[in-house]
């Protein structure tokens, strides 16, 4: 690892830390340390970092805002990559928006509305990055990334780069090709339509109001814990099974939204996983439905 760190520093990879605690990089505020934590600032630095990691046989993963991720208490063996400043930009060209992968998805939504462009209103309350949103095909209010994405710049794990069009992304409900082939989104291009600024602002405000009423936004959480089963809602099943308010340590099935698990402060990943298993077992026994996690588990168990 010492040799790898020396080579990363020689290649001027912006930010390299050993044993970096990850809890602060997730919205659940949970998780142990990463052996190695890298913040490449440019595509060149990213490619160089991936090449060196590959050469040294060190496994890696990429973290956006950590708003859909549960990091294990033992943390991550290998490297965690977080894209830096060179990926935090946005520009508008006619009806097209080009955004860096670490750009805030919420800010992208608000900025597009201010430009009089419609199509990204659904993203107003999704507190992740553009890269995480593409990976997840994030969606809300009957829309998702697949409806507006034109193309994506990707760096594959061998350091090579490609541009993939929407039809090459294998999008489906909370799924993209990146679940099957390891690569890092560096930039995304969205095709929007001309709209009325006031109407877009009104739609954003109404979605925001609905979220504030129905989701525990002020609490540390990671959005919906389970995917919705076909033609139903995980939240409906969890509430009907009497699980709202169930606790394990400082983790609780939210009283406001049954498919959210909130951290009251100091919850461990094991607390959350124990609660998730209890929810799955109870819903399976009561309704015969297997709930599948939407949140992603990262790190050593
Ligand atoms: C309050 C709240 C509300 C939410 N509401 C919604 C909602 O309405 N709809 C919805 O879909 N989600 C929602 N979420 C979940 C979450 O915000 C989304 O899944 C979001 O897209 C995750 O983005 P992120 O950057 O935080 O990803 P992370 O959690 O950091 O990562 C998620 C996955 O994406 C991968 N990834 C991250 N960046 C990249 C990249 N640059 N290239 C390749 N892979 C990458 C990671 O490796 C990981 O596998 C909500 C979460 C919260 C806390
Ligand atoms: N529960 C959790 O674990 C987490 C929840 N969140 C929630 O996500 C939202 C965004 O948080 P954050 O990324 O830190 O950004 P901020 O709350 O700092 O807001 C950044 C910008 O986005 C706007 N904005 C925030 N929410 C919305 C929305 N739903 N619709 C439209 N515009 C919005 C804000 O406008 P304005 O000031 O006018 O609202 C502001 O201009 C907040 O509601 C926050 O509570 C975020 C992170 C973790
Ligand atoms: C938050 C996420 O996305 C959210 C997205 O914000 C919203 C809005 O479009 O729709 C999905 O939630 P959801 O299906 O729970 O939507 P909601 O409108 O909140 O609830 C649906 C229905 O479930 C029932 N419901 C909801 C909450 C609750 O505590 N109890 C309950 O019974 C209600 O009948 C309600 O009508 C996405 N979740 C999934 C897993 O698809 C996420 O993916 O992280």
Fold and architecture overview:
The strands form six sheets. Strands 6-7-13-11-12 form a five-stranded antiparallel beta sheet. Strands 1-2-5-3 form a four-stranded mixed beta sheet. Strands 15-16-17 form a three-stranded antiparallel beta sheet. It is globular, with a radius of gyration of 20 Å. The protein is built from seven helices and 18 strands. It folds into three domains: 84 residues, Uridine Diphospho-n-acetylenolpyruvylglucosamine Reductase, domain 2, CATH 3.30.43.10; 126 residues, Uridine Diphospho-n-acetylenolpyruvylglucosamine Reductase, domain 3, CATH 3.30.465.10; 83 residues, Uridine Diphospho-n-acetylenolpyruvylglucosamine Reductase, domain 1 (Alpha-Beta Complex), CATH 3.90.78.10. With 301 residues, it is α+β, with helices and mostly antiparallel strands. The site of NADPH dihydro-nicotinamide-adenine-dinucleotide phosphate has 16 residues, from helix 3 and helix 5. It comes from Cohnella silvisoli.
